[in-house]
Amino acid sequence: MANLLGAKLSFPGMKPYFINPVNKEKVHIIVDACHMIKLVRNTLGDWGILCDGNGDSIKWYYFKELVKLQEESGLHCATRLRSRHINYYKEKMKVKLAVQTFSASVGDALEYCNQDLNITKLEVVKQLFLSVEKLTIFLTF
């Protein structure tokens, strides 16, 4: 939709505005951070994998295995991540579940359980968590 209006929301050449044809002023596009976090969670959950600009990937498998590991051991690694977060389909609209899925505590748990979960590109996972954390900080203002 943004492209149809003359804006471009991707790199390179990002242009987060379009020109109003009536008064020739810039109209800036501001995305809804809550919606973006849910879109990332839904896309990762549905596709099972996301790749960054470098071709490195993050897998939904990591989250599923962390929940499985927590349930089997009876310990929850100081996270709120439960099977409800993994099977989010009936609660897709709940921002809280999406934000908790990408919380710093889940990132720390994934890092701690790295050997058991066999995460090969832990740095990519950390970058995703940092990006979501920045979005949640933005949401609080």
UniProtKB/TrEMBL annotation:
The lineage of its organism: Eukaryota, Metazoa, Ecdysozoa, Arthropoda, Hexapoda. It comes from Acanthoscelides obtectus (Bean weevil). Pfam families: TNP-like_GBD (PF21788). Residues 34-124 form the Transposable element P transposase-like GTP-binding insertion domain. This is Transposable element P transposase-like GTP-binding insertion domain-containing protein. InterPro entries: TNP-like_GBD.
